[in-house]
Each structure stands twice: as structure tokens, then as C-alpha cells.
Amino acid sequence: MGLRPRTVPLDRLEKAILCIGAFTTIVMAALLVSTSVAATSAQHDLANYESKLTSSQNTATNLRQEIGELTSTSRMNRIAKEKGLTLIEGNIRTVD
Length: 96
What we know:
Layout (H helix, E strand, L loop, with lengths): L11 H59 L2 H10 L14
Function: Essential cell division protein.
GO biological process, one term: FtsZ-dependent cytokinesis
Membrane topology: Single-pass type II membrane protein
């Protein structure tokens, strides 16, 4: 005559612990998915803002370069010459 294994039924406390554990696991999984989606969305937004910032910086750099070109002394002298203006050295005042 050998030992006959038999299952022991779960009592109320064990069932409650299993239910609470399962519920906690499901809630934690949902929170993990939600947090992951929020983080991905935030990364996407950050990438968009960085792209817009880079574009704005490039535009500002291009505009500064254009200002430099338009206000260059050689350009001013060329336009003045085309319009028939002459440079009178005595009328030039240097401000430091």
C-alpha cells in the first residue's frame, strides 16, 4: 500500500490572496503599458520640438548671414557708385 497523493482544497484566505495577486498583476501590467505609451509620446513630442528648434536656429543663422551680406561695406559702396554717389572722406566720422 503506497501513498496516494490527493489535492488539498484551497481555503478562503488562499483564494483571496490569489485573487488579490491576480488583480494586482493585471493592474501593474496596465500601468506599465500606460507609462510606456506616455513615455513614447513624450519622446515623440521632444523630437518634434528639437526639429522645430533646429529649423528655427538655421533660419536665424541664414538671416544673420543675409544681414551681414546686405550691410557689407563693399555692397554699400557698389550701390552708392551705381547711384552716382561719391565718398567724401571729410564727412566720415568714426565712432568707437
